[in-house]
User: Fold this.
Amino acid sequence: MPRMSALPLLLLSLASLPALAADDAHDHHGNHPAHVHGVGKLDVALEGNTLTLHLDTPLVNVVGFEHAASSSKDKDTVRAAARTLREVNRIFATDAAAQCKSAEIQLESAALSPALLGEKAAASAQDAPKDGHADLDGDFTLVCASPGALTTLDLNGLFSAFPGFQRIDVQLATPKKQGALQLTPGNALIPLN
Assistant:
């Protein structure tokens, strides 16, 4: 019988933590919960040698707008943001001794075509936002040759590349630590142990 992992259940329970107060919240009915401009959410899980990250952010934080990219300028902005997000070791820096390598990246937004985000396959069926507010979801999987050497995850690269982020709310689950924390520019290290 295959061994069941407790990490997904732990992340689910962490997701039920009370939402943080915010001034610029937009309530999304349907598939998207309220989002706050400037605030992103990041789920971090380490299991075995696999580090998985799920970023959920208002689209405005990474491209500066939340509408469909119809102009050449908007499309170029989206392509550049997607290329930057795919530089995983720059955006989510790990300890060099852990030797973590990007294994899989998936970017998705109901307001943007998968091709603009660098995706080859069609995105899952989502309705385009009708309220003018859209999110971007990013799933990043890294495989680490020496996961025991993984002590921190550094998001300074994410804050530098995307100044639209004012805060990132993190939920963390590793074999040694579970919890939630807030990151801001200049305070962007996640202790993993």
Summary: Residues 98 and 146 are 4 Å apart (CA to CA).
